[in-house]
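Blackboard transcription, Thursday session:
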Amino acid sequence: MSRPEGTQAPELFYDEKEAKKYDSSSRMRVIQTEITERAIEMLALPAGRPSYILDVGCGSGLSGEVLEEAGHYWTGIDISKSMLDVANERDCENGDLIHHDMGLGLPFRPGSFDGVISISAIQWLCYSESSDQDPKLRLNRFFSSLYAVLKRDARAVLQFYPENPEQAVLVMQCASRVGFAGGMVVDYPNSTKAKKYYLCLSFERSYQVPTALGVEEGVATTARAPKMARKDKAALNAAKRKEWIVNKKERRRQQGKETRHDSKYTGRKRSAKF
Amino acid sequence: MRLITHNMLKSNIKGVVSGYPLQIESDKVEVEECPFDVEATNAMLSRINFSALKAAANALNITSISDLEELPDQDCRDETLLRTLHHILFEVHVIEGYLICPETGRKFPIHDGIPNMLLHEDEV
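(Written on the board underneath:)
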């Protein structure tokens, strides 16, 4: 199955028909709900009070619904009008929708949000339709505006589907270049289907990303031959050298060339002045 | 679009210094009930820019906070005041209208409650 990102721009791919199909798919609902719940968990928001969250690439509001159920207020942005129309019809009390392209930067004032999540969206930044939409430029605009709109004690958790390791690295580099700390958490790294990438970002230099799911404890690493101690290695090299010298001298004698006799001084290290 | 969201939105047209706050022009506003909670409202108050909220309320002909000088503290217990603020922030929805950039005058349309903040090619 080809990736949607490879076929068209998102606002064209998610037209009315596709938007309805996406939203009504029970499989999509289950997966997106699970991913959103995991992202909210990784945000580690303060308990006991509602937070104000930005949902980047909110689509048809599946993730927004999960945010509401967790008791938070949210605002979602998406580039596809059809997806937003479907989200509008949802019974969402705490969420607002905005029609915008995340690659143009997030249009909010500094320090607006307690947290940002993005579910299965930011990989779209890595594909460009025209020359004025260079992926690096879009990624840069997105991450630098993300840096600005988050409150200083807030975090961002961005789940996405990198097409290949190069894309994952590109996204991470853009994030760290604007000043974020954090890293990639890969849940279920050994399963093709269940594997999920979450880019977890924070302002704290000492931030530790959450532990990944589906990674077994105490997995043995491949055994390696113990490295030789340096002293032994030096001795071995010296012996090799003398043996070679002795053999070379023997060869020369057999060739009839004039050769110095062998003694205890043969192949011994001279001092620097020689 | 609720006024809480409007309070966060700014124009990010190229060359604009702050682009905040956006002015509102609207001919269709609806009120939708939203459950009120003292703690939740208090939690949101700390992030509100009051002058922007007042300007927005005025633009929509809402007079209930025009006499209010400043936002209450985080541990405010005046329930009437909190309910008024909650109503303005969460229950008033701008359905049709425009958001206007204060520096360039560009109008971002609001349709069906969703503001369209997409930029034209020359604004990026």
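Lecturer's comment: The beta strands of chain B are 23-31, 92-100, 107-111, 114-115.
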